[in-house]
């Protein structure tokens, strides 16, 4: 990736949503909403305080995050559609524990 966010900005790749409803109805691409869940692919060094110190971000590359539907700015980097936003626009990190990531036998 040829892009490095500045300050407290984060670069996020949206995660594709299901293309079927719970009832099995297919959702066409034109009716899909903008994703609100994504994977962090790049982070800036952090926000600078009034005294000049840099405060590291709480999110890191690889985190799965939730963000507002209209948060950030959509851009295209290396042919990929991504969203760049400030860390404050991220609502939270999705934590998957080992038990939920294992497949049932």
What does this structure look like?
This protein is mainly beta. It has one domain: 10 Kd Chaperonin, Protein Cpn10, Chain O (Roll), CATH 2.30.33. 4% of the residues lie in helices and 36% in strands. It has one helix and eight strands, in the order ββββββββα. It has one helix at 98-101; strands at 9-14, 37-43, 47-48, 54-55, 64-67, 73-77, 80-86, 90-94. The strands form two sheets. The chain has a six-stranded antiparallel β-sheet, with no helix packed on it. A two-stranded antiparallel ribbon has the order 3-4. A hairpin with a 2-residue loop joins strand 6 (73-77) and strand 7 (80-86). The mean pLDDT is 82.
Brief sketch in words of this structure:
The protein has 105 residues and is mainly β. The chain has 1 helix and 8 strands; from the N terminus they run ββββββββα. It has one domain (9-101): 10 Kd Chaperonin, Protein Cpn10, Chain O.
Low-confidence stretches: none
- Radius of gyration (Å): 16 Å
> What is the CATH third-level topology name?
10 Kd Chaperonin, Protein Cpn10, Chain O
Q: In terms of structural class, how would the helical and strand content be classed?
A: mainly beta
How far is the first residue's CA from the last residue's CA? 38 Å
* Largest sheet: number of strands, sense, barrel closure: 6 strands, antiparallel
Mean pLDDT: 82
Superfamily (CATH H level) name: GroES chaperonin
The domain count comes to 1
What's the CATH architecture name? Roll
Q: State the share of residues found in helices, binned by percent.
A: under 10%
H and E order: EEEEEEEEH
CATH class: Mainly Beta
H/I helix tally = 1
Shape: elongated
| Count of DSSP strands | 8
How much of the sequence is in beta strands? Answer: 35-45%
The strand order across the widest sheet is 6-7-1-2-5-8
């Amino acid at each position: 990736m040829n892009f490095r966010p500045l300050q407290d900005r984060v670069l996020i790749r949206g995660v594709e949503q299901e293309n079927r409803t719970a009832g099995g109805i297919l959702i066409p691409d034109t009716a899909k909403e903008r994703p609100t869940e994504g994977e962090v692919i790049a982070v800036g060094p952090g926000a600078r305080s009034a005294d000049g110190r840099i405060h590291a971000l709480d999110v890191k590359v690889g985190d799965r995050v939730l963000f507002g539907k209209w948060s950030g700015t959509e851009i295209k980097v290396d042919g990929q559609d991504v969203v760049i936003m400030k860390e404050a626009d991220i609502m939270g990190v999705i934590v998957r524990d080992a038990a939920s990531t294992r497949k049932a036998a």
